[in-house]
Fold this sequence. Notes:
Blueprint: H1 11-23, E1 26-27, H2 28-34, H3 41-53, E2 57-62, E3 65-70, H4 74-90, H5 94-103, H6 111-126
Antiparallel strand pairs: 1-3, 2-3
Amino acid sequence: MAKLQDHQLSRRERQIMDILHAREQATAAEVLAALPDPPGYSAVRALLRILEEKGHIRHRRDGARYVYAPCVSRKNASRSALKRVVSTFFQGSVTQTMAALLETSDTQLTEADVTKLQRIIEQARKEGR
């Protein structure tokens, strides 16, 4: 299996991965229907084949159709993507990343959000992270 590297995905490949993560599995026709400004059916099939060759998705047969699913859970994929963002845009600094998130005008934390963040920070302190 190829090493998973999201930075090697094209825009269209990322869109397909988003669809597959949201649905957990889909046929080529379902992916085509969910894509914005979709290419042709054969192009979607080709992109699915490429994603499978790269090791990002797998398929199973369901009668005459192939049903595609991501190889990595949405949780693991999101963690990997977040690590890349932190590394690329915030020089690996969790503090800078959190500050940027909290400083955006559309971020509104509830009291429950603040309490949860405080618990996460306290747990990280205890674990020496």
